Amino acid sequence: EDQKVQQSLQRALHTLKGSARMAGAIRLGELTHIMESRIEEALEAGDFPDALFVDLEEKMDRLSLDLERMADGPEPEAAAQPAAAPAEAPRAEPPLPSPAAMLRINADTLDHLINESGEISIARTRVEAELRALKQSVADLSESIARMRGQLREVEVQADSQMQSRQSELEERNREFDPLEFDRYTRLQELTRLMAESLHDAASIQQSLSKNLGESDAALVHQARTSRDVQQELMRMRAVPFSILDERLYRIVRQTTRELGKKAELHIEGSQVEMDRSVLERIGAPLEHMLRNALAHGLELPGARAAAGKPEAGRLSISLRQESNEIALILSDDGAGLDLERLRSKAADKGLLQPGQAASDAELMQLIFVSGLSTAEVVTELSGRGIGMDVVRNAITAVGGRVEIASERGRGTTFTIYLPLTLAVTQAVLVRAGGSVLAVASAMVEQVLRLKAEAMSERYAAQAIEFQERQYPLYSLSQLVGAGGSAVQGYNSVLLLRSGIQRIALHVDELVGNQEIVVKSIGPQLARVPGVAGATVLADGSIVLIVNPVQLMQHARVVTERTVHPVAPAPVPAAPVIMVVDDSLTVRKITSRLLEREGYQVLTAKDGLDALEQMRDVLPGVMLVDIEMPRMDGFDLTRNVRGDPRTRGIPIIMISSRTAEKHRSQAAGLGVNVFLGKPYPEAELLQHISDYLRGEHR
Q1: How many CA atoms lie within 13 A of 313 on its CB side?
Q2: What is the pLDDT of residue 583?
Q3: What is the dihedral of CA 51, 53, 57, 63, to 10 degrees?
Q4: I need a labelling partner for 354 at 20 to 30 A (CA). Which of 41, 171, 248, 389 fits?
Q5: Residue 395: per-residue pLDDT
């Protein structure tokens, strides 16, 4: 009824017809001519029956398919020509100047550039790691210089005292000589002056290093910002709007409704949202299947809808929005909803549910993703084999997405699909499980908890963690990846994860930290391994797998149920903790490496006060203590440890270069168990530690 729309449609068809014939697409031109004629006849008659629109939509679908085939051919420019053709016959007019030059670039080349920008990020992360280590070394150097300055001052005071004493003695013995004739300064004082100058030089070098480190850090931050901007621009070049799928999805709905004898309308909102081209390509087929499923299983026939007080034409809607670094795609219908009782019956027939086994509505809804299970009465070309939704979930999971279901009987069903903005770069939490470092997508993490050993053991006994009125089944990541259970330590890191409607609590051996990672392809060998979503390369060059612990849990549970009765995850006894207390950085490092090679956990403290502060949280199994330390020496530390009922029983092995009998006697009197001199025999030290941890010699 709107003349502007009529004229616009006629102009578009006329232009398309002329352009198609010019390009040699004769069949396309004839089809467009038939559509143009049908519209003119209807306009002249002033009659627009439903059959007219059905006929035009069928021809429009054929036209769209022809254009797609042409676009896939050797000359895609022919398909793009109609949109760029003028509305009337071409005239010899100069083209309008373009606001910006356009350049076509091969998609593979763009992907290569994005991968290279990812390699730049990896290299930058490696430099950042080295810079952090260098900062720590400079901080240790500053601490050592400060300690040496204090020691040198003490030597100077002692030397001056000796000099004054010697001068007095000489004056008594040689009163006839002028004091100025004596050399008041000995070689010792000369050396202390030289050492002071050298120490000042070292301090100057340390200050220069600190300044250079600050400038390097600032330059690295600027480089990180620049590389991130370049990376984001490259990502934006690869991003495409969802709207390129619109016509394809509309066509699927029209064709399927005609085949099923149903009526439906598809509404798409937010189609201007952009996402990674590869993500969009991979979800196209799953979306088509979900739309067909909604029409075949969800929407009722027109008569049934009218009887239920609904419009004869069903409503399908797709809406998109961006949430953080994800795209939320919501597909809903106003059909009959999921028949949960039928799902329960079918699952029981398949052996997925035991007779009388309780299952929540959410668990029953997840059954539609099980391969081989379908609620359809008969198998048709559209549905009934029970393999479609299984493929849909696998396809969504393959791109790092997840899907959630909500359904109300008689009111409809809603699928919420969360998709990553890009497949190239993402935020991940790095965790340690056994001897391996793994990555978990940050989008899955709802909360991170730190639990003491007692609380952790209680949660293991309950097999779950309750947080904000939600139950999270507890699993050990080490156990899920086949490395044995996680050790219960003084403080334990637990990730509360969510994937779809599944929630679990994941106990990890160590929380390494959050990091932006570059996702790498894992190849066909690992692509089908359950729970492995990809891989990345860390700053030190090590390869880290990106895992989905919820899928690992589901796979482990299926395997367990096939073999034996499920066993609750049991905590593994933690490796013994050894505390090394020494003001020498070198001694702390060498001793720590020796003990870690033997499988011990190591805590280090630079003096007695530092050790006492750490022992408030963690009690070591054995303490290795030096004597001479700033703030609190080894004797005072031993006196404090033995005076506290909480720490009184901790074995103490004193290691010092002061090996005189008076030092040994004082140590024994304070309650030191073993006294060793520096350098100590490694085998003897390890034997003492092993004996005390086993309870011998106590």
Answers
A1: 10
A2: 86
A3: 100
A4: 389
A5: 80
Q: Of 178 and 652, which is predicted with more confidence?
A: 652
Rounded to an integer, what distance in angstroms lies between the CA atom of residue 532 and that of residue 439? 10
The yes-or-no verdict on residue 178 having pLDDT over 60 is no
The region, left, alpha or beta by phi > 0 then psi within -120 to 50, assigned to residue 245 is alpha
Please state which of the ranges 36-50, 66-80, 434-448, 503-517 shows the lowest mean pLDDT. Answer: 66-80
Which candidate, 310, 357, 351, 354, places its Cα nearest to that of 334?
310
Q: Residues with Cβ < 8 Å from 366, sequence gap 6 or more?
A: 405, 500, 501
- Token readout for 406 is 């909500």
**pLDDT value of position 562:** 43
Which regions of 298-386 does DSSP assign to beta strands (E)? 314-323, 326-333
Number of Cα atoms under 13 Å in the Cβ half of residue 596: 11
Q: How many other CB atoms sit within 10 Å of the CB of residue 122? A: 16
Name the residue among 526, 465, 532 with its Cα closest to residue 493. Answer: 465
Least confident interval from 29-38, 397-406, 453-462: 397-406
Work out the end-to-end distance of the chain between its first and last CA atoms, rounded to an integer number of angstroms: 100
Q: How far is CA 76 from CA 25, 72, 98, in A?
A: 13, 6, 21
